[in-house]
Specification:
Length: 138
């Protein structure tokens, strides 16, 4: 992924993922507040929270996704390194993309789907919190 320029190395303060995990927690909290009144936005925020947690793990390793790799590179890096715990991120990424770039203008998320996204994001964030202190530079 480095050779393909989907990921790049970072150094210094950029190689500290703790801020990303803090941001993930704040965004997840915001998503929870919107789940009943605006499930679409709650879903998108849950996805963002999960993505920030993943970005934190990459940062802790001295890595970040490039514009070439984008969110798909984050997904691939997480699943390749850490396995099935991060697989829900892929379906969340695809669904969020459908919501951001809909084929039909009335594309929407039901409350139950938003709740599932919140649960998945929470699991990803929790896993990232458990891992982050055990990661070194790549």
């Amino acid at each position: 992924m480095l050779t393909a320029k989907e990921l790049q190395r970072v150094r210094g303060d950029a190689a500290d993922g703790t801020g990303w995990l803090e941001k993930a927690g704040v965004v997840l909290s915001s998503a929870r507040e919107l789940v009943e009144s605006d499930p679409n936005s709650a879903y998108t925020l849950a996805y963002d929270a999960a993505r920030f947690a993943c970005a934190g793990l990459l940062a802790q390793q001295g890595l970040r996704a490039t514009t070439t790799g984008g969110h798909y590179a984050v997904q691939q890096a997480m699943v390749r390194q850490f396995g099935s715990t991060f697989e829900p991120f892929g379906s969340m990424r695809r669904r969020r993309n459908e919501l951001e770039y809909p084929i039909f203008p009335d594309e929407s998320v039901e409350r139950a789907e938003a709740d599932q996204a919140l649960t998945a994001a929470e699991s990803i964030i929790e896993a990232a919190r458990k891992m982050i202190d055990h990661l070194g530079l790549f």
